[in-house]
Amino acid sequence: MQGQQNPISRDVARQAAHWMLLLHSGEADSQDHADCQKWRSARPENELAWQRVARVQERLGVLPPAVGMASFNRERRQGLKKLLICAALLPAGYLAYQSLPWNPWMADHRTAVGERRRIELADGSLLYLNTDSAVDLHFDDEQRLIQLHRGEILVTSGRDPGYPRHRPLRVQTAEGRVQALGTRFGVRQLPGQTQLAMFEGAVRVEPLEGKGRTLSASEQLRFRRDGFGAMSVANEQSIGWQRGQLIVESMQLAEFLAELDRYRPGLLRHDPQVADLRISGTFQLDNTDAILTALPATLPVTVSYRTRYWVHVAVRE
Fold first, then answer.
1. What's the pLDDT at 99?
2. What distance in Å separates the CA atoms of residue 296 and residue 303, rounded to the nearest whole number?
């Protein structure tokens, strides 16, 4: 109700975002602060817009200190500005962390749907991002922290030769923290849980609530904020995406289509009757349309395109 009674124009929202970014840039002087205060006092709408962007900054810390802002490229500055404009336009009751895609917009590294990236980090570690993933990097004198906001990553830990003392390499997810012990491992953020697969070495896993445990090579599990799921065997095929491949062996078609859906925009749906069919093979992720086109050659299904981005897999009569 508050947002309906006190609407903010887009022009005023842009002005509020401009002032917030300027005052956090490290370049604002006393005159800039005075001019901002004058702008806020000029109209009630201006002050309301300012309070909304200030509230988001206070709760979420979307703007770093001035020294951090100086390192932002143009793309990230524009992303921040868009977020602050949205914050000013939204009613106050909607200003929650889940209301807008804060982290992916501002992430240090991110991939679009269908995109994959290989990044060599300053410490010598290799970081692979799977489709639709976003991470922030927080490297300082105490630790090397990779914060996974969404999606999936594969990490090969580096020796960190630039520091005389050990800095632990860690991955933070919504459910807890993983610390590498000289290793190669995969982490996937799922709804309400994290999937962890060990391929070399070992890691220490610490859920947000509960006791930690150590995983060794070839072990895989999922963990929640308060504990662990069942242990299973980690399969190298599960990270075939690193090479642009989806590798499956006797996988249910429903699960296969759900995996394929991660790599293509739009909707990929299926009839319940085809869900339990089994599929095996190595599939090239750079051409998901070709994968779908080939399905009727090996399975009793039809594939129909209702639009370019709406595909339906049905049982063949």
1. 47
2. 7
